[in-house]
Amino acid sequence: MQDNQSMWIDVAQLRRGLFVQLDLGWMDHPFPKGSFRIVSEEQINTIRSLGLSQVRYFPAQSDAAAVTPHEAFQVGDAPAGLSPAVTSEAVADELAPVATAAAPLDEVAQARAQRREKLNAQQRSLQVCERRFTEAMRQFRRIAEQAGSKPAAAREQSQALVGGCVNDILGDGESAIRLLSETMGDRSAEHPVNVMVISLLLGKALGLPTGELHALGVAALVHDLGKSQLPERMRYADPGFSDSELQFYREHVQHSLQIGQRMDLPPDVLSAIAQHHEMVDGSGFPAQLRGDRMLAASKILALVNHYDNLCNPARLVNALTPHEALSLIFAQMKPRFDSLTLGAFIRMMGVYPPGSVVQLANDGFAIVVSVNSARPLKPRVIVHDVSVPREEALIVDLEDAPALGIRRSMKPSQLPRAALDYLSPRPRVCYYYERAAGADRSGQHT
């Protein structure tokens, strides 16, 4: 039997392990998806309460032990004169009856209300992240404008912005990295905010003291201010640069350092700015420093800056997916980065960082939207589900959906058109932080 062939089964014969599809609108049932593998008696009782006499199931996607070949007919293969319902009932007569206790209808209504509340909470959380990211970009632009003419004001604003983020990240509960649904169209502001957010989260994961974390955040925010003194076409590294053009581009580090000095930034912030392109194997620039001469903050900033440049290059045709960028760094660039820092980064971002497009174990498609470092193989995803409008899709925590493991990462161009339009992966990846899902689960680290 082919994987996409379905069969009818009477709801009285439902059992754990069957992969079923409910031919109902998403508001007419309380489940996150209309198709799923049954894992509990509670799910069976809920399905029986929906008023359906039969449901479709997919033998090829069901647990082998749950499937018996004679219990239902393939869709469309019912004997002439018999509807699938009659056929299913005839088969049911041959099998031992199963208890059909149904959950009260008010419980189903309550589940639907809970789903709506989850969707509202999900949308509110995303809106908060996007609003705060936009505000951080606005503040960065003001800092960049004032860095030359009002350096003291630029310093104070930088410290205030970073201080607020540090207080949030060090507050109650764990923070998770959240993919934003929209990019803001201004790479010169998106990049420093992206790098600041990820650097602060990584610094916390590595246990940096509050003062060092604050210095790291300020350095991450202003590390590229010197690019404003370069011609537009020279502000981003290009493989086609001549030797002289490459040297000219690299001067942005010195320009950024000079701006930081005029802002009267502390020495540890200035050092991190000066070292944000250094590599621990001595292959970086401008001073070819090795790891033993680099600050912990510099090692973090160098890694995060490189990751964001791989995901969000000046030329989008050269962009890597977050999974590709992480894989490239680990497989081919590992000697360039501090091993402790890189290990913590991979644990924090997960094997499939937010923004990664993936194929699931059931051959469906999804986009990773959030990662909790305590469960790097179980990110939170939005799944392509034709039964749910795109704007109403609930985030699925793979920790709670064991049947939906990730099979592989994909390029967006490899997606079927319907999945591409639904998941709508953005050409640029922007991140912010939110409280980790499941942070209040008793007995679990998040």
Structure report:
The chain is of the alpha+beta class and 446 residues long. It folds into two domains: 7-103, no CATH class; 110-435, Hypothetical protein af1432 (Orthogonal Bundle). The protein is built from 13 helices and eleven strands. It has helices at residues 41-48, 84-94, 105-149, 151-169, 187-205, 210-222, 243-250, 252-262, 267-274, 296-311, 322-332, 339-349, 417-423, and strands spanning 7-10, 19-21, 35-37, 54-57, 175-179, 357-360, 365-371, 380-383, 395-397, 406-410, 431-435. Strands 5, 6, 7, 8, 9, 10 and 11 form a seven-stranded antiparallel sheet that branches. Strands 1-4-2-3 form a four-stranded antiparallel sheet. The radius of gyration is 26 Å and the shape is elongated. The model is unreliable at 70-103 and 439-446 (pLDDT under 50).
